[in-house]
Amino acid sequence: MSELKRKSPESLQDRLDQVHELLRRHRLVENLVHRQEGEHQDLVESLVHKQNLVELQRKLDELHPADVAYILESLPLEERLAVWQLVKAERDGDILLEVSDAVRETLIADMDNEEIMAAANSLDADELADLAPDLPRDVVRELMDTLDAQQRERLKSALSFDEDQVGAMMDFDMITIRDDVSLEVVSRYLRRFDALPDHTDKLFVVDNDGLLQGVLPVKKLLVSSPDLLVADVMSADPVVFDPEDDASEAAQAFERYDLISAPVVDAQGKLFGRLTIDEMVDYIREESEQEVLSAAGLREEEDIFSSVWKSVGNRWAWLAINLCTALLASRVIGLFEGSIEQLVALAALMPIVAGIGGNSGNQTVTMIVRGIATGQVQVAHGRRLLRKEAGVALINGFIWGVVLACIAWLLYDNVALSVVLLSAMTLNMLLAACMGVVIPLIRLRLDRDPALGSSVMITAITDSGGFFIFLGLATIFLL
Amino acid sequence: MSELKRKSPESLQDRLDQVHELLRRHRLVENLVHRQEGEHQDLVESLVHKQNLVELQRKLDELHPADVAYILESLPLEERLAVWQLVKAERDGDILLEVSDAVRETLIADMDNEEIMAAANSLDADELADLAPDLPRDVVRELMDTLDAQQRERLKSALSFDEDQVGAMMDFDMITIRDDVSLEVVSRYLRRFDALPDHTDKLFVVDNDGLLQGVLPVKKLLVSSPDLLVADVMSADPVVFDPEDDASEAAQAFERYDLISAPVVDAQGKLFGRLTIDEMVDYIREESEQEVLSAAGLREEEDIFSSVWKSVGNRWAWLAINLCTALLASRVIGLFEGSIEQLVALAALMPIVAGIGGNSGNQTVTMIVRGIATGQVQVAHGRRLLRKEAGVALINGFIWGVVLACIAWLLYDNVALSVVLLSAMTLNMLLAACMGVVIPLIRLRLDRDPALGSSVMITAITDSGGFFIFLGLATIFLL
């Protein structure tokens, strides 16, 4: 590939492997040194040790901050902190922005206030706002004092928004121009910059009062005649956002209209900041990870190498909820202990009814919640969706119910028991389908998050409901 | 907001509401006309009908193709096809690219070959490649014939890659320049274009043989002196991809390095195509949706308004797997029917042991699978993670086991039963934790997808295992 150095994911992996190898050697030497403590310390080994560290530091300096962040995240705590010490102080800020919240906490805990201040000094107001919630309070106050008036104002305004609002995600790196100048003048103006901000795919056209008039895409600037006026070339109808807009809606708009950057204007139409695609991509990724985590009953992102106690804290809440629903299901069974004593096969078959109902209900609720999230499902669709899901449940319940009834008949040689099993399975899947449609739609109407805990609720209903339907039918018809 | 028209998500919602309102009126009139069939058809009503359609068509014409796609997706089948008929033929291609696979199928099924050919004519080779798998075979063949040699070559090569490979996602809209010309010449060259391709944030520098020499970011072109040569300004070490690279790795690289576009080069270093951030965003979104869907046992994306039979087809596979695992758990219980007959409380308590083990195991497996996906977890970390997860499970198992043992003691007044319950819960959560670490790591080592079905497998183990441990301990110690 001649002069062109490849930097694709594979070669990144190579670099990471090199760092890991250096760390391993570093560890070996440390162990050796450790073992010889008290004895005569071998000069050669100490040199090897130092050499390793120097090489490691050199490797780290070559890496993009995002790659260093990635390495830090994939290291257990002690090694993570050892590597963190090797990173040059002026890069600390950029790297802290890239690591996950959980890992950021461990890194900041290892820094003293001076180091934090030094790291923060290289950052813009919007980047500081991202870090601020994780910093010690007195450091934030001290930081505020070092900023100039404009930066302080920006930091304050960024901090005033909710984490999920556009205002908390925007930056202030916009280049503004007037609409009454020629493109020639714009080009000359741009050449006065040393570098343009990242993601500058458009310039923002404002009037004397800072009101947004339109945007001038760089693409248009490049192909248009230099004599034209900005007003003739700009698009006067750009996609704009309000700082109070919901970030997930902004992300959808970025996706839908293939945006790279977009202006954020306040209620008066004044240009306030700008949103860029990289923030939106991070948001989309985080949002989807949150969805996967909460479906599994993890409250938040967890540092995979965090301590046992921290993990217990992250996980106990959902286990407690699960315990309550399991206890409820257990009490439902308790109601029918007499029936089980008479026909112990019921105990063996009842988990099947509950389990397959839960699976089917989760399929329905996932479909509906996703439809709500993408805006395809409205409350008005309720009856139509209910009909469809009930149909699916009836067919699936009947088909698998017949299969299972045959197996149960082979095992227990009891036709009545098989018929009860078939009926219970079909009914429980019907219950699951209805609840799978109704619960998220009710939550939508009440303006609550339709996704939160919906899977737990469905499982609780299909467990208790399944046991009740199966044991109830059995008690009525079999005993 | 003076002259500036807002087009933020809210006002999009307004437009969508207008379309829905027009559709509703359209439906009302149709019903009316339908009721009067055979009678004297009222001219006025037919006019109202037409007027509605014209207004609807006008509204649709104003909307971005992505918005029309969104409307089509949120409509039940009959109305979806009615709206689809109103869309201008030359926009069909763009809209087909935007809708989800499931909805695209319903739209294409409604078009005849001529309409499809007309829609396809407005598309580029890489866009055709996205549509081709959903088109009738003879249409694809006919299409191939209408393309010029270069386009046909590109379509063929795009189709030759796997859906998840970079080669299937790249486009061919790159602007190439030589490195021995001045920026002034580049600027003049660009001005000869009517418009630059979307997402042109860099120009690709190639030599006479088409080998990639570097990239010239547009940002640099704008701030640098026009007299400089491309070779002096370009970056010679860009992030490049191979057409056979995995799309998920490319997406991670785009995220990590905040890329907007990147060159794709073949094994010889020849420029082959380009990747853009919009494709990567779509990929990230689809990948995360796939994860959520498959966790719930849905094989693929499902049109929420699809027919009952289609949905049954999409869902039966996982229900069948679930049925098998449930049957296995049921047979484990069957082994201990004698014990349950003697102490029926076991039947009521056993689902708790199984359920909370499943929840806990799913937490572990989700953490590990995520860690593997982000590259933080390697096989070498196995022992450390096993220790940690076992610790978490022991603590959680013991705490909740004690709570539950107390409740069971209150209910059944049987200390021995409570102790068995406590032991079984702790052991089953330990089993869940170990399997939650071991299963994904084994799959990783065997080069399989660690996520696929891991939740089903864990639940199967904790169900059967939980029943076995609890009933086994009870049989040994209580009877």
From TrEMBL, chains A, B:
Q: Name one GO molecular function term.
A: metal ion binding
What membrane topology does the UniProt entry give?
Multi-pass membrane protein
Q: Where is the CBS domain?
A: 234-291
Q: Which InterPro entries match?
A: CBS_dom, CBS_dom_sf, Mg_transptr_MgtE_intracell_dom, MgtE_N_sf, MgtE_transporter, SLC41_membr_dom, SLC41_membr_dom_sf
Q: What is its main location?
A: membrane
Keyword annotations = CBS domain, Cell membrane, Magnesium, Membrane, Metal-binding, Transmembrane, Transmembrane helix, Transport
Signal peptide location: none
Q: Which PROSITE patterns match?
A: CBS
Database matches in SMART domains: CBS, MgtE_N
- Record NCBIfam families: mgtE
State the family named in the UniProt similarity comment for this chain.
Answer: Belongs to the SLC41A transporter family.
Q: What does this protein do?
A: Acts as a magnesium transporter.
Know the name of this protein?
Answer: Magnesium transporter MgtE
